[in-house]
Structure formats: structure tokens, C-alpha cells
């Protein structure tokens, strides 16, 4: 993405049929849409890095609740501290 609006191009819709960002694209054809799924993937794939999700179940549940609340909005889940009360 660089000029804006690239999410509406046909080649991008092949990896994200909803024409939304973000999408995590791998060289082997795998792609992951939905910010929460991407966050889960990154935490599982890189366990030695600072986690993006809380480690405790209550914290995780709060993120899931917030994600559900915002899932009908036009914003992806990007900053856990912004959405978790
Ligand atoms: N539930 C999706 C929401 C993604 C989303 O809404 N992305 C917006 C940008 S914040 C988008 O790509 N909108 C496309 C457009 O405005 O054309 C997620 O969490 O990834």
C-alpha cells in the first residue's frame, strides 16, 4: 500500500476479498486477514517477542470483547491498550 485505495484493486482482493487492511501475506500463498487473527498468529509464531495479546485469560477475554464490540466499526484492532478498559 502506498498511494491509497490499493485495497480495492483486484489483485489485493485475491488475498482479502473484503478489500480491507490489514492482511498478512506469506510467500507460500498463505494470507491471514482480520487483525485479531494476525495478532494471534504473531504471538504464536514469535513466542520470544513481546506479546501483543495479554498472557492472562481475563486480559484476553477483554480483548475479544472489545474486538467484537468494534467488529462492526471501520477500525481494525491495532492497539490493545486503546480498546481494553
Ligand atoms: N475487522 C477487520 C476490520 C478491518 C478494517 O475495517 N479495515 C479498514 C481500515 S481501518 C479498511 O480496510 N477499510 C477499507 C476501505 O475503507 O476502503 C480487522 O480487524 O482487520
Short description:
Helices cover 39% and strands 7% of the residues.
Give an account of the 3D structure:
The protein is built from four helices and two strands; from the N terminus they run αββααα. The chain is mostly helical and 85 residues long. Strands 1-2 form a two-stranded antiparallel ribbon. A hairpin with a 5-residue loop joins strand 1 (23-25) and strand 2. The chain is globular and about 40 Å long. The chain starts with 9 loop residues before the first helix and ends with a helix. Glutathione is lined by residues 7, 19-22, 34-35, 71, 74-77.
Order of helices and strands: HEEHHH
What about the largest sheet? 2 strands, antiparallel
Structural class assignment: mainly alpha
Which ligands are bound? glutathione
- Placed side by side, the strands forming the largest sheet appear as 1-2
Choose one word for the global shape.
globular
Number of strands: 2
| Poorly predicted spans | 79-85
Beta-strand content bin: 5-15%
**Whole-angstrom Rg:** 14 Å
Q: Given the structure, what is the number of helices?
A: 4
Provide mean pLDDT, rounded.
85
Helix content: 25-40%
Kindly report how far apart the N and C termini lie. Answer: 32 Å
Descriptive labels:
disordered C terminus; 4 helices; 2 strands; 7% strand; two-stranded antiparallel ribbon
Question: How are the secondary structure elements laid out?
Answer:
Blueprint: H1 10-13, E1 23-25, E2 31-33, H2 35-45, H3 57-70, H4 80-83
Antiparallel strand pairs: 1-2
Amino acid at each position: 500500500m502506498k498511494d491509497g485505495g490499493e485495497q480495492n484493486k483486484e489483485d489485493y482482493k485475491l488475498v482479502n476479498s473484503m478489500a480491507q487492511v490489514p492482511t498478512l501475506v506469506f510467500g507460500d500463498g498463505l494470507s491471514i486477514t482480520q487483525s485479531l487473527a494476525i495478532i494471534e498468529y504473531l504471538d504464536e509464531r514469535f513466542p520470544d517477542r513481546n506479546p501483543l495479546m495479554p498472557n492472562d485469560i481475563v486480559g484476553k477475554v477483554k480483548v475479544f470483547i472489545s474486538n467484537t464490540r468494534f467488529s462492526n466499526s471501520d477500525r481494525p484492532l491495532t492497539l490493545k491498550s486503546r480498546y481494553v478498559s
